[in-house]
Design brief:
The complex is a heterodimer.
Chain A: E1 5-9, E2 19-25, E3 32-33, E4 38-43, E5 48-52, E6 57-62, E7 69-71, E8 75-80, H1 129-138, H2 156-168, H3 176-185, H4 203-210, H5 229-250, E9 253-261, H6 263-275, H7 284-298, E10 304-307, E11 310-313, E12 319-321, E13 323-324, E14 330-331, E15 334-335, H8 343-358, E16 362-363, H9 364-367, E17 372-376, E18 395-399, E19 403-409, E20 412-426, H10 432-446, H11 449-453
Chain B: H1 3-17, H2 40-54, H3 69-79
Classes of the chains: A alpha+beta, B mainly alpha.
Chain lengths: ~450, ~80
Amino acid sequence: MADESFDFTMPSLGADMDEGKLVEWLVKPGDVVAKGDIVAVVDTAKAAIEVESFRGGVVERLLVEPGTTVAVGTPLATLSARGAPAELRPSAPEIVPEPEIVPEPAAAPRRPVVEPAPAPQRPVPAAGPLIRKLAAGLDVDLRAVRGSGHRGAITRADVKMAADARSARPSYRISPYARRLADELGVDLAAVHGTGRDGAIRSDDVRAAASVPPVPTAQPVKTTAPDTAAQKAAAMRQVTARLMARSKREIPHYYLSTTVDVTDALAWLRGRNRELPVPERILPAALFLRATTLAALRVPALNGYWVDDHFVDGEGVKLGVAVSLRGGGLVTPAIANAHELGLAELMTALRDLATRARSGRLRGSEMTGGTITVTNLGDLGVDAVYGVIFPPQVALVGVGKVVSRPWAVDGLLGVRTVTTLTLSADHRATDGNTGARFLDAIDQALHQPDMLWEGSR
Amino acid sequence: MTPEEARTTVREALRQVAPDAEVDGLPPDTSLRDTLELDSLDFEALIVQLSERSGRRIDEDDYPQLTTVGSCVDYLVSRGG
C-alpha cells in the first residue's frame, strides 16, 4: 500500500454517454478527498453533472485541463491512497480485493484493471523493447509512468497517455476565477504571462492577454462539446436518439395498461396536505413514485437490469424519474434507496432532483444505476404514455393525466378520479403475466394510503 | 393587495420559478401550463412563492382558480393578505 495510486477516470454517467467535457476541477493537487466527495463538474451532452470520487485519497495530479472533452474511461486525475487519513482509506472488503501475488500462468487472460495492482518496487520499469522505443520517441521518462498492464507492466497506452497528459497539461499556476475568465474570453493560457507570485496567472493577466490576438497552439483542444444553446439542444437530441434507437433495437417491449381509481388516494393526500406547511405539500407524482416503489419490491422481476443475456436483480429500488428540462430535452436521474423513503421523504427527493436537474447540478451517482423508471406525462394532459425502456433497465412505468370520469363502483355509476398507468417491459426478462401482477401491485398500493405514507426501513 | 402589488408579486414569483422565461409584460390570459410550460412541480413552487409573498396560505382547493397570470393576480387581489 506504500505506493498505491489510482486513477480517477471520466465516468460513464448513463448508458447514453460515451464522452464528456471536464468543466471544472473542485480539487487541486494535495487535496484530501473522501469517498463520495464531489471532485469535478463534467458536462455531458445532456447536463452538467457533479462527479464524486469513488474512493478516498490524496489528489496527486490533475491530468486533464478544464474545457477538454475526453472519452469515458480516460484518466482525469491521479490520486494516492498514501497520505490519506486512515479513515479515508477504502476499507478492504468494500472494494474488489487484489488477489495475493501468485504466479499466474502466462496464458491467463488479463483481468480487467478494476484497481491497478500496487506498483512493485522497481527502479527499472517493466517495459518491453518496443515500449522503451516508443517512450524514447515521445520523450517520455518511463520511471514516471505507472503501468496499467499485467503486474504493473507499462503498456503502449500508458506511454501515449503520459505523453498526451504532458502536452495537454502544462502546469499553470492560476486561480479558478482567472481560469474561468480565460475560458470565457477564449484565452489560451499558454500565451498568458503570469505576473503573480511564482509566475501565477492572475485575472488581470488573462484580461491583458485577451486584448492581444491568440497564438495558435500546436495541440488544439478537441472541441466537439457543444457550446451554443442550439448546438446543445442538437447534441442532446442525438444522445437521446442513440439511446432510444438502441432500446427499440435490442429490447422486445411489451405494453400493458390499466386505469386506476385514485379518488380515495388523492382525497387522503389532500387531507395530509391541509396539515402540512405549503412548501412541504406532497404532489400526486410522489404518490405514484411511492406506489411504483412498493410494486417493485413485490414484483422484483421488473426491478433491475438485463445484462449479458440475463436478468440481474436491482437489490433495492433506485428509482429513475424522467425529468423534462425547460427549453427541451430529457434527463432521467435516479433516487437511491427509494424503498427506504416514506412518501414525504420521496417528495423531498423528487423536488430536490427536479430542481437540480433544471439548474444543471445533478451528481454522477444519480445518473447511473436506476433499477426502474417512472415517466409522468400527465401534467401535459395526455391520458396515457407508452414509454421506451432505458437500457439496461427492464421496465418503465408511465403515469397519465389524472381525470374525472364516469365510473361504476359497486353497481352504481359515479364520477371518480382516475388515471391510466402503463407498463413498458422487456419481454426477455419477464412475461406479460409478471407485468400484469406489477400493475396490479401499483393499483393495490394506491388503495392503501397508509402503506404509502410509511417508509419500509 | 392592490392590483398593481398583485401584478408585481406574480411577476416576481414567476421569475423565481421560471428563470428562463420572459415574465415582463405577459398578457393576463397567459396560461401557466401551456405558455409558460409549468409542470406540477413548477406550479407547486409558484404556489409556495405566492403564499410566502402574500402571507396567505393557498390551499389545493383554490388551485383551479390559478391557471393564468391574470387569474393569479385576481386571486391575490380578492383573497391575498
